[in-house]
Amino acid sequence: MAIRKRIRELGLSQPKVSRMVGRSASWLATQVLPDPENAIRYLWAKDPEAFNRLLRVLQWTPEEFSRETGIQLPGAEIPGSIPVVRYRIPVIDAGAGPPMWNEGAEYITLHIPELRGKREDELFAVRVKGDSMEPTLRDGDIVVFWTGGAPEPGRIVAVHVHWDGVVVKRLQRYNGSWYLYSDNPDHPPVPLTEHDRILGVAATLVRKM
Questions:
Q1: Is the separation of the CB atoms in 182 and 132 below 8 Å?
Q2: Is residue 153 reached through a cis peptide bond, with omega within 30 degrees of 0 on the bond before it?
Q3: 3-state DSSP call for residue 198?
Q4: Distance (Å, rounded) from C-alpha 28 to C-alpha 13?
Q5: Top CATH class, 89-206
């Protein structure tokens, strides 16, 4: 069926999807897939937040869900739901040069409400390398940045450092000067210089599974 196919397309497992929705590992296999239409209609009516989480995991809008599964849901929208918009976002690796997008660039497609209200051309993503931002960010995580965000103290930012390419750090101010801090205390802070350029502030995280 369509839900099983979608899970395979995304490289996920049924237990993992169940846990990402906030349910037990067996939830999808025992309570949804045996009778998906009734299970989904019940979830839609009784637990719209869980249904929203399922949509986000499957990267479907409600309209796409109904079209792909053939399950028609009553009402124009989910009570309490947040509009989900599709974004195609370019990705660079930490340590690379300034973002320069072309047809050969890597992209990810996301459907997550944290990005609502932001233009697609204001977004880019950086793949984290190393352990300098652990435990907040892990090696391989993808962080989406918004170029229109305010680089305030305490925010995670993407910075083009003139001697190290693009880095992901936490911005802090001390004694009137700006510094780039790592969340891992084994990595000392470095000053932000006039040659460095803040590219954007963190908008959301795509965790490496």
A1: yes
A2: no
A3: strand
A4: 10
A5: mainly beta
| Spatial CB neighbours of 168, under 8 Å, sequence gap ≥ 6 | 94, 126, 128, 133, 137, 143, 156, 157, 158, 159, 202
Tokens of 207: 């965790």
pLDDT in tens, the chain (209 residues): 789 999 988 888 999 999 988 889 899 899 898 888 888 888 877 787 788 889 888 888 887 888 888 887 655 344 455 555 678 899 988 876 555 555 556 888 877 666 777 888 899 999 999 999 998 999 999 999 999 988 999 999 999 998 888 999 999 999 999 999 999 999 999 999 999 999 999 988 887 64
DSSP state of 185: T
> Tokens at residue 95, please?
């340590």
Residues facing 141 on adjacent strands? none
Instruction: Tell me 113's DSSP state.
Output: G
On whether the pTM is more than 0.70, the answer is no
Degrees, nearest 5: CA angle 61-65-69: 170
DSSP label at residue 151: -
Domain spans of the chain? 2-69, 89-206
> Cβ of 202: how many Cβ atoms within 10 Å?
19
Looking only at the bridges linking them, the beta strands covering 165-174 and 190-191 are unpaired
Segment (H or E) for 124? strand 123-127
Q: What is the DSSP letter of 193?
A: P
